[in-house]
Each structure stands twice: as structure tokens, then as C-alpha cells.
Amino acid sequence: MKPHPCHADRRQWLLAACAIAITTGLPAAPAAAQTYPDKTITLIVGFPPGGALDTIGRALADEMGKTLGQKVIVDNKPGAGGALAVNALLAAPADGYTLLMAAINLATTPAMSGVRYNPRTDLMMVSQISSVPVLMLASGKGTLKSPAELLALARATQGGAKVGTGGIGTSGQLALELLSRSQKVPLLHVPYKGGAAASMGLIAGEIDITFDLGSGSLKSFLDAGTIRALAVMQDARSPALPNVKSAKELGLPADTYIRSWQGVAVKGGTPQAVVDRLHKAAVAAAETTAFKARAWQLASDVVTSKTPADFQRFHDAELDRWTQVIKDAGIKPQ
């Protein structure tokens, strides 16, 4: 029995429609993603105005706004080591109109104080924008001039050398733990309330060294000779601090290296088309002359991710590394 002509025509029409959908890549991205962005975007910063993360975040927001054609405003939500900012992001829709300035605290806070979200799935990384060197520092008036001399001092001093940092769980303490465990030397942790206070303690002779980020304020101390940089704790010199030798040059192994980092993240579930648009805008912003100048003033290196997936893998690897270090060292929040 032959099919009715109408049935055959209908079947052919359906097959043609399917072919069109396949060749055109349907279903297409949601309409909202296609028109993104069509309103102001908020960039949440989890630390107070005037700090390094806030300063670099504002420079990024200015340049991203130019690329995206919409204003990007900074909203500071300091507190709980950046956790309040993460909570604010997770309370917003996953539509790309609320961004988070991501930093190394996203990889340390879950292990140190615990969080109520899944750091691997509830957050989506967009792109890294900068890398911040961690420096081993001594007083400009002191006798220490190399990591080897510090290690010798630590071994010869009962209780170990006194090492100041900007506080519990900071990059400075992580650097201390890495060095102590790698070289099997006693280092007495002296936490201060912020890197500036630790620098003043170093100048006053209260401690032997500090570990701190290469911030703009620290750079002024280095330029004046008040504080001496013994090493940048990584495998190569920092372009922002080209006269400071790397830990690798000075004979320290890879398990002592640490770099802090900054980037952009969004809420998990944000449409991939929006994430890709933000990635392109973030990378373009980081490559501008204005952003590079601001990063240099903060002694930071511009480092971007090739894809959002690359930054996600980097974040997850950092999460694994620092979770183990924090667990082994028994680091607890203040």
C-alpha cells in the first residue's frame, strides 16, 4: 500500500527541517546570551577599597567596559577572607552580569575555614589576568643577603628564625610552610595584621625576614633600600622586579615556589557563550597599555588564560595543592 501523498510530503518536510537544524547548529544559544551584555555589569571585590586586588580590579573593570560596550562597576564586599564576596556572587543569577575578582584565597579558604559551596562547580573561572610574585624580604640594615644565609640562621637559632607575614593563611604563611618543609628548617611564624604591619616589624628589627606579595607599597621600600629582597619565590625573575633573583637561581627547589594570582570568575551555570565573551573581554583588557601600567605599579605580571577551561584547570590544581599544604601544616583561621 502506497503512503498517502500528504503523509509523504509531511515526512519530507520534517526531514528537511531536521537537516536545516543540524547544519545551522540549532539549538542556538539562549537569546539572552546572544544579546549579552545589554546592561551594567558588577564586578565584586572581596577586599577593601585601595588594596591591591581592588586597584587591579578597577583597572580591569575600566578596560573591560570599553570592550563590552557596557559599564562595569566595582562593588567591594570585604570580610571573612573574601567569603562574603563569593556568597554575594552565588546569590546572584548565573547570567554574567555579576562577576567576581578571583584570587588565591579561592583555593585556600575552602581548606582553611570551610565553605558551604562546591569550589569546583559552583564557581566558573573566566580568565587569569595577573600573577603576583611572593618575595623573601630582609631589612635593608640587616645582615641577611640570601636564602642560604636565612637557612643557616634558622638552623643555628633555637626555635628557628622569626618570619613575619601579613596574617594566618596568607600567601606569606604558605611560602613559609613550603620553605620550612622543603628544607627541613625551623621557622617561627609571626603573623601581623596585614603586609604593611609586617614590613614595619621587619624594619624595626622584630623579625628576621618576611614573605609578602610584591605590592606597590612594598616596591617603594625596595626602591629606597629600606627593605632588601632576597628572592622572588618562583622559577624565573619577575618582569616587574627584574633585579631580584629567582628562588631557582639561588638553588631552591620547585617545592618552595609560590605565586599569587588574580582573575575573573562567574557563578556556575553561566551560559558558555557569555563566559567566552567575558574571557575575550578580560584578555583584551589585560593587554591594554593602561592595565599593564597599573599592574607594573603593583609589581604584578600580566598573565592571561588561553581559554576559560585553562583557568579552571589552574584553579582546580591550586585548590588541590593548597588544600594539602594547609592540612599538613594544620593552618586554622584567626
Could you explain the architecture of this structure?
This protein is α/β, with parallel strands linked by helices and 334 residues long. The chain has 2 domains: 31-131 and 260-329, D-Maltodextrin-Binding Protein, domain 2; 133-256, 3-Layer(aba) Sandwich (D-Maltodextrin-Binding Protein, domain 2), CATH 3.40.190. 43% of the residues lie in helices and 19% in strands. The chain contains 12 helices and 10 strands. Strands 1, 2, 3, 4, 5, 6, 7, 8, 9 and 10 form a 10-stranded mixed β-sheet that branches. α3 (52-68) crosses α10 (272-286), α3 (52-68) packs antiparallel against α11 and α5 (105-112) packs parallel to α12 (308-329). The chain is globular, with a radius of gyration of 24 Å. Residues 13-28 have low confidence and may be disordered.
Write down the secondary-structure element order.
HHEHEHEHEHEHEHEHEEHHEH
- Helix content estimate: 40-55%
H/I helix tally: 12
Q: Determine the strand fraction and express it as a percent band.
A: 15-25%
Looking at CATH, the homologous superfamily of the largest domain is Bordetella uptake gene, domain 1
The CATH topology annotation of the largest domain reads as D-Maltodextrin-Binding Protein, domain 2
Query: Sheet with the most strands?
Result: 10 strands, mixed
